[in-house]
Amino acid sequence: MRIKTVLLAFIFISITSFKVMAQQPKYNFVNLTKDGRLHYLPNAKGDVIPDFSRVGYHQGDKAIQQVKVLKVLSPSGINDQQQIQDAINEMAKLPINTDGFRGAILLKKGTYEIPGSININTSGIVLRGEGTATKLIATGTGQRKLINVNGNGKPREIPHTRVQIKDAYVPVGAKSFTVSYADSFKVGDNIMIFRPGTTKWIQDLKMDQIDAREGLVQWKAEDYNLTFERKIMSISGNKITIDNPVVMAMETQYGGGEIYKYTFEGRISEVGIENMLLESAYQSDTDENHGWDAVWMNRVENAWVSNVTSKYFGYSCVNLATYSKQVTVQNCTSLAPKSKIEGGRRYSFNNDGQLNLVRDCLADEGRHDYVTGAKVAGPNVFYNCKATNAKADIGPHHRWAVGTLYDNIVTDGDINIQDRGNWGTGHGWAGVTQVLWNCQAKQITLQNPYVSGHNYALWVRAKKSNGRLKGRPDGIWEGLNEDGIPFSSLYEKQLVDRNNR
């Protein structure tokens, strides 16, 4: 009797479990396994939603440091810019400790008048305030960066290290590929993945036939060579595995791909700007002869901007330029920009670098609040950010940004991923492998380029828009204005999965 009871209980549990599994929803691109981990569903070519978790400061493997204060300053009201710059220059002469830092400069509460720019061009320096009680004002006139963090130089290819990728097709999301010869590489090498621009690719994208107008430039193959910074994690024969995924497919019909080793000797690292209010003087709401960027970063890696509020700048709160890498921008606020409301202005949080993370930020009265520019090589992430009183759209704004996740972005304006046609000097296709996850907007345009990949709007809430130019392929949508999202944040879920491996 006892055996029969146990057997009946086992059958009941099995049937119940089967029903639960049968009722569990299945999604088209990202699912959860029985143990709650992510499972990506490839398309016919093998492309999957990429892993965006290795972005930001030290790729999320290291917390932003609380660096020891070695210098304390108070506003003098006479020459605040010079005393801050002198302290930075003095700090730059100190040795770097084992964590990569020289030390922090604390700006005590008060108002610091800055008629020019504050420059940090050495590694290991943190500039810290005491919250919004520490105010730096870009006084006087002239478009400029208030805080300018910048190394020097550019990436240099190491001669005789370039080899071809042999796979006929390397899909989006892949972290490995086969090269013609791997013996000259080792684990830990920094490599550049080179994806050439080709005439056939431009023609198939129809970017050689943008509707003509004055000042327009048709796309040219030599201008679209893309380079992605990666690190080698393992080598097996001629198969190389890298730290971050491929975010644009490489295929032989468009020139395939290559890798090579590189150096970047002038790039600086371990720089932080934190806990302060940055303002610009201005003459009127449309004045443009005043502070332009509150914080600008280039030629820097493993850096951060945290708890910074900007007011009245014409362009940005934080602007990450082309050679910025693994930078985290968090808990920052852009308020009341002063400029004309038209092109090239009010890009509240602009990212032209790669492997960067902008999270938990707020922008008010901006135009392109969370935005990328031309030929931006991802992955990059905008996460848990909000835009209010938006004057234009969020998304890839220029020419062919690659591999961006917009996750939990909320705006009272639009989010657009589309063929921008002859806007600007001929922006054309704004991007590929652009992923919207759990975003809210007034309306969203999502188009797929004619070739070379897809764009995704997954579990977004918005009115679906056809975009500026009709007849373009529709993007990939799932869960539009529906309940039942499998998890709130793709970035956070990917990060949890990675950390639990």
From TrEMBL:
Keywords: Signal. Residues 1-22 form the signal peptide. It comes from the Bacteria. InterPro entries: Pectin_lyas_fold, Pectin_lyase_fold/virulence. This is Pectate lyase superfamily protein domain-containing protein.
